[in-house]
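Backbone description:
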Amino acid sequence: MILMSIVRHAVPLALGASLLLSGCGAFSDDVEVDQTRITASFYPLAYAAERVAGDHFEVINLTQPGVEPHDLELSVRQTAQVADARLVVYSTGIQSAVDKAVEQNAAGDVLDAAEVITLREYGAEHDHGDEHGDEEHDHEHHEGHDHDHGEHDPHFWLDPLLMADFADAIADRLADIDPDHAADYTANAEAFRTELEQLDAAYADGLANCQRHLVVVNHDAFGYLARYGLEFESITGLSPGAEPTASEKARIQDLIRAEGLTTVFSETLASKKSAESMAADLGITTGVLDPIEGPGDANSSDDYVSLMEKNLEALKEANAC
């Protein structure tokens, strides 16, 4: 047992040393893949992998609690965890350091969420009409902000049914990798889907009759919730830490007054400055909507499902549902 423990810790250290010597670039094809490990790039992907894999794989999350996933820089050890994983679960366009490590170093299988999920286009929730804005406003809103994610919104996990689709994709990939336990992966994904369908129904029922439907959030991360009848306006656009222009800030303040909103939402990991400043200017309250990109506290007992449930309760209260 002691010998196995030494070997288990020595392999990633040796691989890390080889990566360091090579400048963390591509390395030879003789890397020994850890047949028992899945490496996931950030929390919701890791959670889905854990639910599907069960006890058959260890799942490592590259993004530690309290770290904003978009800001992740990989250490040598983390690069090694990408390199020798049996499966890397990630989503292109969110974490450039992970994208680069997968392209250059991954020796096992990879599963890119952006390739198996049909992502919505940014601004799609405004396509139904001119209420609360038009194309000119949409352009102004994002002008000067970093388009970190390109044309498509990567936050698919905020739609429970898309999260279920992603779990199915993980189950299919694990069944190919480990056919002896394929039935387990399928069953785990089906059980997870049942839970997610119940969560979807709770959102649909809970937001069916609301006095208000406009929600002002810190940054543009919640568009997938628009299918429940909500419309989202973001203060900082696509970049959580950006500053709104004076005209954009005034436009959103006018919307808040016109719609009689009582709450402006900040987030768990991103700066709360813009949301709190706007709420203070208008004499209304602030709340928290979690984009569920990662837990803010390593000791928290919350998981993806409970965080989604908290988001629902916050939306119901703010919108008088």
Observations:
- Strands lie at 34-40, 58-61, 85-90, 109-112, 214-217, 231-234, 263-266, 285-288.
- The chain has a mean pLDDT of 84.
